[in-house]
Amino acid sequence: MEKGNLKFFIVDDDHFCRMLYHQHLVNLGYKDNLLFDNGYDCLEKMNLQPDVIFLDYDMKSLNGIEVLRAVKQMNSTAHLLILSGNDDSRIAADAMKYGAYDFIKKGERDLEKISTVINRICATSKKQSGFFVNS
Question: Taking the model in full, what pTM does it have?
């Protein structure tokens, strides 16, 4: 996956968080970002085949784990990150159990952690596609 070619979905019912993560991605050079304030709208747009999905855990109607489970049935190759202000270890464990790529606690260097995870996704994808060059 090349940096500019990644498509992101940002799913968070908190407008501030949604815009913060979107702006962070834009600052990193990622322009193909769709923002949703609920899980239902995200699921309806899965035909657009996002590469990376940021999912807030605490959302009305469908929480992040419920959306994650539905997404994994539709698109098993998407990388899902659960973001939560709640540091309950059971949420993190459930996220990983159901196929999340990572769990990030909001507010604790979350933008730095997002950058690290994106770099890891890109590096892993390059290795798997055979384009990885060992320097």
Answer: 0.88
